[in-house]
Amino acid sequence: KMNKPENASKRSTKSIRRFKLPEFSCPLSYSSVIAWYTDFINLLSRAINSTGPESSSLLARYYYLRGLAYLMQEKFQEALLDFQNLYKTDCDIFPKELVKKVIGAMPPDQRKHASRKSELKRLISIMLEKEGDVIASDEHVKTFQLPKTHMHKEDFMKRIQESGIVKDVDTILRLFDALTIVKSENNKLNYRDMTLDQCSTTKVVSRSVFYLSAETGHLKQIDPETFKDFYNFWKESENEAQEINLPLEVIEHLDKNESVYKLSSSVKTNYGVGKIALTQKRLFLLLEGRPDYVEIAKFRDIRELENISVMFFPLRIPALKIKTTLKEPFVGNLKNERDLWQLIVKEMWAGKTMADKHKDPQYIQHALTNVLLMDAVVGCMQSPRAIYAASKLAYFDQMKNMGEYKETFVISTDF
């Protein structure tokens, strides 16, 4: 009588999971190969969703295969997210050298975008640190120092450019005007009627902005405290945006290189309760209490914005109404955030219109920069004129209102 080897009996009791590959269509062509990879990814996603965390080794194999499939489609960020999941499931098959090559092969804008994701930030940093590299967002090695003296327009422009916030001269000039509008309310000395010599000999006892007549050759100036407040708020907002951790269910619905740049407070809307999220392409509502979202509107689909009040007896709550051609109007009870969000959405809408008209995505990037500057101006100031000041940065919306591109506001829906 022959006995089975002990390890053979152990193998026979182990459960085997089979994964069936999608069929190849004939004849083979580029489009059919792309379709095959898409089917392959969809099957792996279903397998991942139906596999519990207790089967970590099996999950790791699925993530590994899906990561490779994403690489074949040049979806680098999705591939890195799957390889990152191997840390949670099976480190032994983590493809360290492959991940290094993927990060190195990513275009700079994609790598910078990926490094903003909280899930990937540490992975990319570790991989590049081992190679002695620095991630794209940290390439600016010059140490920036906040100003300690008042700045006239040219000084302010130089400081903003050195800080890395924005380089465009016209945008910086509009920012200068916005900050001086707000801070003029805190000017306790009557600089408007003083000469330049008088200003130079006056002891500054408050956070002042010098408002002097252009006809007499005098200059406006911004104090270092104002600059510091603005700069700190900008950096805090930047860090908060990088730390936004979206559910995987939401990430899968966003386009390649699409990021969330701003979140509202939790608000009540006719789509549910949640936070309004702004990306460079759309608005959506991150629903409270569950990992899901509802799209509010793509900027190209917006038809009308309206400031309204919602009755909540005995109060009237400020709300924003967004109309599109695709669904019922969105109404969000934004309260004291309403006016800022209206400015933001109008500017992104106008920027998207210009981008579509000229077939140039730089317009939407410019609009996004304007929006983030508006947010920082309002956020760092405690002033009833903050919204008016921020509106000075709404360049594309101002162009629309002045009728400089009226024809662009017949927005195409053929996308």
What is the number of E strands?
A: 9
Q: Give start-end ranges of low-pLDDT stretches.
A: 1-13, 132-142, 187-208, 211-217, 405-415
**What shape does the CA trace take?**
globular
Radius of gyration: 27 Å
- What assembly state would you assign to the polypeptide chains in this entry? single chain
Treating each run of at least 4 consecutive H or I residues as one helix, how many helices? 16
Biggest sheet overview = 4 strands, antiparallel
Distance between the termini: 74 Å
Mean pLDDT equals: 80
Largest beta sheet: strand ordering: 3-4-5-6
Structural class: alpha+beta
Order of helices and strands: HHHHHHHHHHEEHHEEEEEEEHHHH
Helix-residue proportion: 40-55%
Beta-sheet strand percentage?
5-15%
Outline the structure in words.
- The chain has 415 residues and is of the alpha+beta class.
- 47% of the residues lie in helices and 14% in strands.
- The protein contains 16 helices and nine strands.
- The strands form three sheets. A four-stranded antiparallel sheet has the order 3-4-5-6. Strands 7-8-9 form a three-stranded antiparallel sheet.
- Strand 4 and strand 5 form a beta hairpin.
- The N terminus and C terminus are likely disordered.
Indicate the topology.
Layout: H1 6-12, H2 30-49, H3 56-72, H4 76-89, H5 96-105, H6 108-115, H7 118-130, H8 153-163, H9 169-183, H10 196-201, E1 209-210, E2 221-222, H11 224-242, H12 248-251, E3 260-269, E4 272-279, E5 282-287, E6 293-298, E7 302-312, E8 315-324, E9 330-332, H13 338-358, H14 362-380, H15 386-391, H16 395-401
Antiparallel strand pairs: 1-2, 3-4, 4-5, 5-6, 7-8, 8-9
Helix pairs in contact: 2-3, 3-4, 8-9, 11-14, 13-14, 13-16
